[in-house]
Design brief:
heterotrimer, A mainly alpha (318), B alpha/beta (313), C mainly alpha (314), A: 318 residues, mainly alpha, MetI-like fold, 2 domains, 13 helices, 2 strands, 1% strand, B: 313 residues, alpha/beta, Rossmann fold, 6-stranded mixed beta sheet, 4-stranded antiparallel beta sheet, 21% strand, globular
Chain lengths: 318, 313, 314
């Protein structure tokens, strides 16, 4: 009773009280809050600087490169021999190696990944899913250099038994191995997209008499189309950027890659090869790795933007 | 007995006499009701006990299906308790009741929707006539049930395809793919759903371009195209505006002349407008069942009375 | 008024054979289930084959000497001492850089950021950086840290590079962890009169800790296996010395010289040995790979278990 009287007296008196928190304390607390916010913002903004840094380094070094080599030659020459007497700088050569190996990777990962994603989202019960998803994560966590070893020293000899023309360094085996490597990503993103398809659509299909497979193929996949495509493109991006598997198992021969049974250098393998050697800073050979890097960055950047746009597009449809 | 049947049949023509709009229910219908408003002893016995022996008499005609002592369990939780209900052939049967009473649960038993999710269990029977088969039996594949019994959902759910492909999908899945037949059936179904005139020039456009009411009629057409024995409607107009609602209600009466309809609705007035028979459910049981006009004007059970007058629900 | 006929026109619906439809559906569904399982088995088989291959090739090679020897021209005498010490030092640096930065950025993006241009830009950037190939980070480090800043091929640069590489992982993990904090905890924190930073520091961060830890482990596991950026920086592959020890006997007992020393790392050593023609080196590579595999599988497995525990607590 007395307490209530005190309280009402306090309130009526008009004094501003903070019940234990002095104005000084609150001011300090506010200041700390602002400072922390600034620090946190700086940390977040760092990502912009990283991108800017990447772009700056790649562009500035490439600019020095293009001072010596015409862009036309760079894009359309058909040989890549930067360390020869008369160096040639046809990036198409390296791109063809990257492209061929990535294509093989996709040819493995897209069908397997899509089937697995459908299986996980439409067929498998939750217990099966609980086991499979961690296994895929483990697969995704294996260092790429280990996959490289596996490709060169285990799989290639085995494949050579069945494919006589297969040379020690080739694009087929690393391509397949890269396919297995990107499988978890494709499954994960596709499955997310499929599970995002509303239950009402599924029920509508089953109510019409659709079988599970028909529902998956005719309703779910069209419904998850953007997300599934985004998964494929992300996989492609990953395969294009992959370094160690191809550096180890695809050889260093820079040539236009017509034949997957023979090895060919990819953009990434080339950069590694050059970095291993002695590169005088500022030399043309040194600059080539930045030009190659810029090409690679642009390729993956375009893929990532498309995939990003696709993924966010499907989220709005429903 | 014959006299009772005749008088109840006199109520039947409600389905024939109804015009397009609900407002056309005239007092004439009520007069017909009045002529049998004094129930005979057998009739009152039949009406007070929803599970009457004289089912034919209570439902006034041949049955398309019959729910026999059906219980349903979501895992361990029981949701339906010994439900019994006749479904008259080519009539509209409405299930009404407050939310949570089990009407949607019961509806989804008819086409085995519950089988899509693990842990659900049926006890008892739903017999489909004339085959006289228990469609909730484990021996019957859910897909074969769904090939005969179609459903329209609360929220329109067209597939991400064109209008034409949506309506044709039920046919495609049944192996009917010949272009001429499919085109004809699609047009027929869209006509029956009163959507043809509005979409005949945009059959190839995406179904998502239609309005809500149009999409729902599209879903009705889609369910109709394969000519199901029975059509289940789960609160089909609750997501629509009054104009669209009225249009679909107008459809229902004439649709019933072709296909048996079971409709769940939380809107009593809608049930009164469109259905021939109504079952009032509460807490997973059928409290009362009978011809719609009887149920709404002279319900037997006080709970029915309370619900109808809006005391609860 | 539309014509409402009672009469049904003669049905144009052809007869359907329900039984065969159902049978066909059952068969195709069963078939697909088998195919799905087969794909699963194949993927798991590859995983197991890889593990067994390393064990078969390399397990026998791992012994005490292997762990304490420096690399040598003779495969039998070569060891991974400089490699695993280097890896450890680089990993410590990476973690110390990436975790605070990543968590801070994640907190900002999840708790403070409003919908404006800068914040959208930051988000897009983080997503984009997650997809940039690791070798590009190496080029960034080479151009910026090694050359422009003149730091050289040292542990610190390697740590910085890998930290930038795994930053998106930490940021995303932090955001996910904060996002999944139950509303009750947030309401309780603010209800007690905490301001934003207090709520984060005293209530939200602790609640998000397991999730952040999971992300940190996944990030570290990724960083341990990264080879390409380190090669690009110029990490050497034949180092027969160790970076200076961090702990010393005189005051102040800790020195940071090791940060500025050249180094090598296990994946690099492994790569170097694979590239040699002699089979003996391949065995060494397998042994190194086995250790790397064990580490990454253990770390990832731990992270998976942590995530499972978090989820079951919710």
């Amino acid at each position: 009773m007395a307490y209530a009287q005190d309280l009402s007296a306090l309130l009526l008196s008009g004094e501003r009280r903070h019940f234990g928190a002095s104005p000084a304390f609150l001011k300090r607390r506010r200041l700390i809050g602002l400072v922390m916010r600034g620090i946190l913002f700086t940390a977040a903004a760092l990502s912009i600087f990283v991108t800017l840094g990447i772009v700056y380094v790649l562009v500035s070094e490439s600019a020095k490169f293009f001072a010596h080599v015409s862009i036309f030659d760079f894009l359309f020459d058909t040989e890549w021999t930067p360390v020869f007497e008369n160096p040639r700088f046809g990036i198409i050569t390296l791109i063809s190696g990257t492209f061929m190996s990535s294509l093989i990777a996709l040819m493995v990962a897209v069908p397997l990944g899509t089937i697995l994603a459908i299986y996980l989202s439409e067929y498998a019960n939750s217990r099966v899913r609980e086991i499979i998803k961690p296994c895929l994560e483990l697969l995704a966590g294996i260092p790429t250099v280990a996959f490289g070893y596996f490709a060169l020293l285990f799989l290639t000899p085995i494949f050579q038994i069945f494919i006589p023309g297969l040379s020690g360094f080739n694009l087929l085996v690393p391509g397949i191995v890269m396919g297995i490597m990107i499988l978890p990503y494709i499954v994960s993103v596709s499955e997310d997209a499929m599970r995002a398809v509303p239950a009402s659509l599924r029920e509508g299909a089953y109510a019409l008499g659709f079988s599970k497979l028909q529902t998956a193929l005719r309703v779910i996949i069209p419904g998850a189309f953007s997300g599934v495509t985004a998964a494929y493109i992300l996989g492609m991006s990953r395969a294009v950027g992959e370094t160690m598997v191809v550096a180890i198992a695809a050889g260093q021969q820079a040539r236009i890659a017509y034949n997957p049974l023979e090895g060919a250098a990819t953009i990434t393998a080339y950069i590694v090869q050059m970095s291993l050697g002695d590169l005088p800073h500022g030399s043309l050979a040194y600059l080539t790795i930045f030009a190659a890097g810029l090409t690679l960055f642009l390729m993956t950047f375009v893929f990532n933007i498309i995939a990003f746009w696709l993924r966010h597009k499907y989220r709005e449809v429903y | 007995m014959a006299a009772l049947q005749n008088s109840l049949k006199a109520i039947d023509p409600l389905s024939r006499d109804r015009r397009g709009s609900p407002e056309d229910l005239t007092t004439e219908d009520v007069t017909v009701q009045d002529s049998v408003s004094i129930p005979t002893p057998e009739a009152s016995a039949a009406m007070s006990d929803p599970v009457s022996h004289d089912q034919k008499a209570a439902s006034g005609g041949p049955r398309r299906a019959e729910v026999k002592d059906l219980s349903f369990f979501y895992g361990d939780k029981q949701a339906l308790w010994g439900v019994s209900l006749p479904i008259a052939d080519r009539k509209v049967t409405a299930l009404i009741g407050p939310s949570g009473c089990g009407k949607t649960t019961l509806l989804r038993c008819f086409n085995r929707m519950h089988d899509l999710y693990p842990g659900n269990r049926y006890e008892g029977e739903i017999r489909l006539y004339p085959e006289d088969v228990n469609i909730v039996s484990r021996d019957i594949d859910p897909m074969s049930v769904r090939l005969r019994i179609g459903m329209v959902f609360q929220k329109p759910n067209p597939f991400p395809k064109s209008v034409f492909e949506n309506v044709a999908s039920g046919l495609w899945v049944r192996g009917v793919r010949q272009k001429s037949i499919v085109s004809e059936r699609v047009e027929w179904a869209l006509q029956r759903a009163a959507l043809w005139d509005e979409v005949k020039d945009r059959l190839r456009d995406s179904a998502y371009g239609l309005s809500g009411g149009q999409q729902q009629r599209l879903c009705i057409a889609r369910a109709l195209a394969p000519e199901p024995d029975m059509l289940l409607l789960d609160e089909p107009t609750s997501a629509l505006d009054p104009v669209a609602t009225a249009r679909i209600e107008g459809l229902m009466m004439e649709l019933a002349s072709m296909v048996t309809i079971v409709i769940v609705t939380h809107n009593m007035q809608q049930a009164a407008r469109v259905s021939d028979y109504t079952a009032f459910m509460y807490l997973g049981k059928i409290i009362e069942f009978g011809p719609t006009t009887t149920l709404f004007t002279t319900p037997n059970d006080p709970r029915t009375q309370d619900y109808i007058t809006g005391r609860f629900g | 008024m539309t014509d409402r006929t009672l009469q049904m026109p003669p049905s144009t619906m052809p007869r359907i054979d329900e039984r065969s439809l159902v049978q066909k559906a059952k068969r195709s569904d069963g078939c697909f289930e088998i195919v799905g399982l087969a794909v699963l088995v194949v993927s798991m088989f590859v995983l197991l084959a890889l593990i067994f291959d390393f064990m078969a090739d390399g397990l026998a090679r791992i012994d005490y000497n292997f762990l304490i020897n420096f690399p040598s021209r003779h495969p039998g005498q070569a060891g991974i001492l400089s490699a695993w010490v280097g890896t450890t030092m680089v990993m410590v640096t990476t973690t110390f850089l990436a975790v605070p930065l990543g968590v801070a950025a994640g907190i900002y993006l999840e708790e403070y950021a409003t919908k404006n241009l800068i914040n959208d830009l930051i988000e897009i950037n983080v997503t984009n950086l997650a997809g940039v190939p690791s070798i590009i980070y190496g080029l960034l480090a080479l151009g910026l840290f090694v050359q422009t800043l003149g730091l050289g091929e040292i542990v610190l640069v390697a740590g910085m590079t890998l930290a930038l590489l795994i930053l998106p992982i930490i940021i995303v993990a932090t955001r996910e962890a904060l996002r999944s904090i139950p509303l009750e905890i947030r309401e309780a924190a603010y209800g007690l009169g905490a301001d934003k930073w207090q709520a984060i520091r005293m209530y939200l961060l602790p609640a998000a800790r397991p999730g952040i830890l999971t992300g940190a482990i996944v990030g570290m596991s990724r960083a341990i296996g990264e080879t390409a950026p380190l090669i690009t920086i110029g990490a050497l592959t034949f180092i027969a010395f160790l970076p200076p020890a961090p702990i010393q006997l005189e005051f102040p007992f800790i020195n940071f010289d090791w940060l500025f020393s050249p180094f090598t790392a296990m994946p690099i050593q492994m790569f170097n040995w694979i590239s040699r023609p002699q089979a003996g080196f391949h065995i060494n590579a397998a042994a190194t790979g086995l250790i790397l595999l064990a580490m990454t599988l253990l770390m990832n497995g731990f992270a998976i278990w942590l995530r499972y525990r978090i989820r079951s607590k919710q």
